[in-house]
Structures are given as C-alpha cells and as structure tokens.
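Box 3.1. Reading complex inputs
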Amino acid sequence: MVTSRFLKACRREPVDATPVWFMRQAGRYMAEYRALRERHSLLEICRTPDLATEVTLQPIRRVEVDAAILFSDLLLPLEPMGLPFDFVKGEGPQLERPIDRPADVDRLRDVEPREALAHVLDAIALIQRELAGRVPLIGFAGAPFTLASYAIEGGHSSNFARTKAFMYGHPDGWHRLCERLAAVVADYLAAQIEAGIDAVQLFDSWVGVLGPADYREFALPHTRRIFETIGRRVPTIHFGTGTAAILHELREAGGDVIGVDWRIPIDVAWERIGFDRAVQGNLDPTLLLGPTPRMFSQADDILSRVGGRPGHIFNLGHGILPSTPVEHVQMLAQYVHSASRRMR
Amino acid sequence: MVTSRFLKACRREPVDATPVWFMRQAGRYMAEYRALRERHSLLEICRTPDLATEVTLQPIRRVEVDAAILFSDLLLPLEPMGLPFDFVKGEGPQLERPIDRPADVDRLRDVEPREALAHVLDAIALIQRELAGRVPLIGFAGAPFTLASYAIEGGHSSNFARTKAFMYGHPDGWHRLCERLAAVVADYLAAQIEAGIDAVQLFDSWVGVLGPADYREFALPHTRRIFETIGRRVPTIHFGTGTAAILHELREAGGDVIGVDWRIPIDVAWERIGFDRAVQGNLDPTLLLGPTPRMFSQADDILSRVGGRPGHIFNLGHGILPSTPVEHVQMLAQYVHSASRRMR
C-alpha cells in the first residue's frame, strides 16, 4: 500500500503512471449497482455494511482505478444531529425540518460518530478486509458550508438564497451551525481514519457560490478546523466545484490535494493553488457520455497540461453521470494509465 | 439622453455618480408587478405591449435606477422557431418538444423577428414614448449557448448534461443550432435597435459551465457573430454567471461592457477582462434580502475596488430575488449614487 500510485501522488512523489479514480465510481451507471438498488434504498445500502462494501467494490472489479472510495452519503451525519432526511425519487435529498432560524441550531444534538455512524466504520473494516491492500480506500465527509446549505435549504438548491440569507442575516447562528458541523465532521473523519481508511476527501461541492471574501469569512475557518484536527495522519483531498476564483482560499483552508472542476484548465488552477500542493481533476463528466475520441483527447490535454509534474491525480471535475456507459469509464482509466506512462 | 450616466459609463466616459440598474428590476419583488400577475400570465405580459410597458416602467417610478430594461423573456424567439414552451408554476420554462437530435435542428423554422416578435418592438416604441428620455432603455436577448441549453434541456438544468452531450456528440448539429439561434438573435437585436432601444444586453447566463477551450469551440464564434452584426450602433453588454475562468474569452467574443457575477472581486475581473472594456456588476443578489448594513458595506467594497475608474456600471451579479424587500432595492440605488459621488 505504501507503494500505491494514488498515495504517492497525494504526497507529490513520482509515480510510474498517473493514478486515477472517479467521483461516483460506484453508482447508477453500473448495472450491478442498479440491480442492488431494485431491492434496497440508497440509505439502506449506506447503513448496511455488507451492502456498502459490495457497492464500494463493484467498480474495483470492473474499472482499472487506483483507489476505492467508501460508498456513503454526505448527509449521513445530519440525521443523528436531529436533521432527518430521505431521498425522494428524482428530487434528491429532502430534509424533514430544515434549519430556519438560529434557535434551530441550538436544538441540534451532539453526535458521537463512533456510535451514531458505527455502520460506516464497520463498512470500512469490511471493505479493507475485502480489498486486502489491492488499492487504498478513500473515506469522505461534507465540508461545513455544503452540509449547512443542505441543512438550511432542505435539499438541492439552484441559487442558495436561503443559505446565504441565513449566513448574512444571522452570522452568529451561521458560525454556531458550522462549528457544530465541523466538530461532528472532524470527529467522523477521525473515526474513519481509526477504522482504517487510507486518505480522506472533504467535499465542499457547492462552496463555489461564494466569492473570496465570503469564503474567508463564512467557510474557511470551519473547514480549516477539520483539516487541522485530521493533521497528517492520512493524505487529505479538498474538493469543490465552480471554485476558479477561490482556489487560493481553498488551499489556505487545507488539503494535501486540491480537487478542481473542468471550468478551469488544470495548469492554470495548479499555478493559482501553488505547486506545493497536489491537484486532482478535472475532466468534464459529460465527456464520458461519448463520443470517446473527444474523451481521450481531453484526457490527453489534461495530462499534457500537467506535463508529468508529480502530484496529479486524474479524476473528473464532478461525479460520473448515471447515463454513462461503463465501457467508457473502463477505457478512460486504462487510457490515463497508458498515456501517462508513454508521456514519462 | 446623450448625457445619460449609464450610456457614458458604457463608453468609459467620466460620470458624476456611478450609474446603477438591476437585472430583474421589474419583477416579483414589487407588489404592483404581483398584482398584475394575478390577472395575467408571464407570457401574456411579454406579448401585450401595454402590459410590458407598464411592468418595464414600474421600477422606474420607485427606484433611482439609471436605465430601464425591457420587460420580456429570453425564450421568446424559440416559439416562432418551432420550439413552443410555457411557464410551469414553480418550475420555470418547459418546452413542449426539446431538441433531441441533429435532425430536430433542421426542422427549425426561419424567423422574421419584425413579424414574429412585433409585439416586443411595439412595446419598445411605447416604453420610449412613456420614458420620454428620462433614462435610457436597454433591450436584450439570450446568447446562443444559453438559448441552445434551454432548447435541448427543455427547461432549467443543474448540470447541463444533455446540452453538453449534444455539443460533444453532435458538434455539427450543435453549430447548426447555434448558427440558427445567432442569426435570429442578431436580427432580433437589430430590430430592437431600430425600434429605439439605447443599449443591448446579451445574456449568456449559463455559459459558465464551459471551460475556456469549450467556450472557444462551442460558444464564442456564435456570440461574436451577434456582436459583429450589431456593430457600434448602440453600446453592448455581455453578461454571464460563473465566468471567472472565461472572462478573457467573453471579452474576445464581444461587448463594450462585460457583466460579472459576485464570485470574483470586480477589480480582479476587470484586470482579466482588460481596462479597454467597461464592467458591470457585481453585488450578490442575496445581500438585498438584508440586513442592510452588510449590503451597504459590500456596495462600498465594490465601489472602492473600482476606485473611480470610468467604465463601471453598478448592478447585481444576477437578478433580484423575488423575496427581496423593495425598500432595500430603493436604498441600494440611492446609496450607490451618493457613495460614489462622495468618492469622486
């Protein structure tokens, strides 16, 4: 495992070929996942270690990826905190009672992730046993801003108006909420590390709706606290979308690796982040729908922009889309390996 | 009108105070608009010159803005092209038969905007008569990428997967579609200019989902053609959201003024755009929900970043949200005028 390409790249060490994994590499684009979903809900899979293990391993058997990522959901910590939710078909997550005013924050419950989310930790142990060192296992959690946005909006949002109105209108309540979330997430990730994961990714998927000054005021301190708590126990990846104007701030908040989306060329992004961090990205997931020549040429473009500099992990700019043909995912992983080997 | 602050700022000439107008300054946040909407649908208002005139003028009577903007909808040109749509309560526009394959593009009809959209041109004449030179009138249309995304997705989208799959999968069909849209839009804007508007804004609201290389390949040539067709007859504003990484490309496509959203500080944006263009923006619309001290301090921040350089039009980074108190909009416009006067 110490020789894992993925872990080496996180530490910016030279590798034989560019490591690759995909956000949502386990999911609806795979027939075996869809088959399992016919019998079990998303939350059932997340909460049943055997099922979470099976789904985590599905892409490892089919796709030449250099890392597994725990199958789970960003929102899991919200329920034990007192924010129950469910997944409504076609609409994504829906919270029963979103946070509406600062007093709602004070009603949140303290959570001991080792108890409330023990099933995730059990899944990690089970997955590691099954993986037997073939590839490292990535654990993950949501960053405070992104979790707070779900807690306040009650689900997906297009403009994050409720989130920002709360943030601007009740800065104290906002910071209390994010402190609570940061404490739970830090604890949850520490528990994941103890349970045996090899790296963590913090998803601040929607933080790109903030400009640099707002990011610094409302998101950075809470995200930084999580990275500080994790320390240097395992490599950390810090990911968001639409972050072209706040890459420097994301880096300041923490993360050995900064994940970037397709909106900015990876070399431009890396320069803004600083070459003392690794980068992960950044193919547009839509390119995997086909046709494959364009997918390959864009993968080439990313690899040549990186130019063999140590510290690049190939990934998409966001998750694999459900309608993606599995063959394209397989071909892309192989291609990244062979093309990056040729470039060395 | 030649002395209009707004038109002077478009030409980067010095002004006595920073001109201000707001995207969606006519709309649901105003009680008089909501009253009208109880009796008329959005499309009825757009298609009835008297009603469009009334709604266009509503904010002029209440808010100290330096320009009126024609009340209309980006999608109007789609119906005569053979893409009928309606507004579904709470869900936004919904096309009856979105474009699904390249053959659908060839079935689109040629449109003579002077006939098919004559009601818009009638509204312009009526509005100008009512305005009687008090403030200039801005006309507008959607840019090819943004219109194509509605034509293909059939409505709002969160990831634009269908749009991009079409673009990557059928580049010829995509370019044919955008050529058709660009021709109609160029003609439509020319007709608006003939009908008497004083400036135009081209809305490429969703083009920020493209990186620079994709923007250059799939959007820029079509947008440029529109700006070239308009020429220098009236000042042109080119607006998009999430464009931090493609500002230079937007500028290259055209526009005397580049509109930017709140995700990037306006001075950083202006430097990337180049000081030989004017800029418009960029307060986060959520700040208008309150509390007002933060709204004012952010307005100050924008004005001090601009530092009195000629060629800044104050606006939001996107449209006014429906739940915005009208008093905040009034106070903000006054504040921009008085604060920018003090700074001079």
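In summary: The first strand of chain B starts at residue 68 and ends at 69.
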